[in-house]
Amino acid sequence: MLYTSAALGRLAKIGGPRCCKRDAFLALKEAVEYINEHYDLSLQMSEMKCDYSDCNEQCIRQRCPFYKKKIAFICVHNSCRSQIAEALGKKYLSEEFECYSAGTETKPQINQDAVRIMKEMYGIDMEQSQYSKLLSDIPTPDIAVSMGCNVSCPFIGRGFDDDWGLKDPTGKSDEEFVKIIKEIEKKILDLRMKV
């Protein structure tokens, strides 16, 4: 009885509309806490994040404790810096966030120097899971990050949450690519701490 009332209390605190995934996650979390407290056990529970918010029109998004925020890394062509940021975002932030990249224009392929160097540095083959995308090809982001636009930033319908001001390494030396990749990696790791 205590467990049931505690679980129902958590559900009521968040409010509706109803979501089967959220209700199940909350009930499970409450059950683990109840068992640990009342039966002198130490059950472990990994952090749960919902991957279904885009499928549920009634999702309460940020009010849900299991919602995964969406981050979009944006530049004009979506072929180099934003693709690197998406790959590193997926590597380092996938537990907390869904990471995407996009642009206002596309290129037929991801920058081949970026593909090669990311493979060498991290073992990530960006061509296996990524491609050049338009803003309309990705879900609406909760957080929008500009890679830095030398001339003008793409218009995304709202302001950017951050502008990383990164120079485009296209056509430059491998050393320049590595420098920019390391800078992106640092900003990705900093982003984890900020958000």
Provide a brief overview of the structure.
The protein has 195 residues and is an alpha/beta fold. It has six helices and four strands, in the order ααβαβααββα.
What are the SSEs and their pairings?
Elements: H1 2-14, H2 20-38, E1 69-74, H3 81-93, E2 97-102, H4 112-122, H5 126-129, E3 143-146, E4 162-163, H6 174-194
Parallel strand pairs: 1-2, 1-3, 3-4
Helix pairs in contact: 1-2, 3-6, 4-6
For the record, what is the CATH homologous superfamily label of the largest domain? Response regulator
What is the CATH architecture assignment of the largest domain?
3-Layer(aba) Sandwich
The averaged pLDDT comes out at 86
- Total number of helical segments? 6
Provide the β-strand percentage band. Answer: 5-15%
Q: How many β-strands, per DSSP?
A: 4
Helix-strand string? HHEHEHHEEH
Largest sheet: 4 strands, parallel
Could you name the ranges where pLDDT drops below 50 across 5 or more consecutive residues? none
Report the top-level CATH class of the largest domain. Answer: Alpha Beta
Spatial sequence of strands, sheet with the most strands: 2-1-3-4
Tally of distinct domains: 2
Which structural class best describes the helix and strand composition? alpha/beta
As a whole number of angstroms, the C-alpha radius of gyration is 20 Å
Distance between the termini: 37 Å
Overall geometry comes to elongated
| CATH domain fold name of the largest domain | Rossmann fold
Helix content: 40-55%
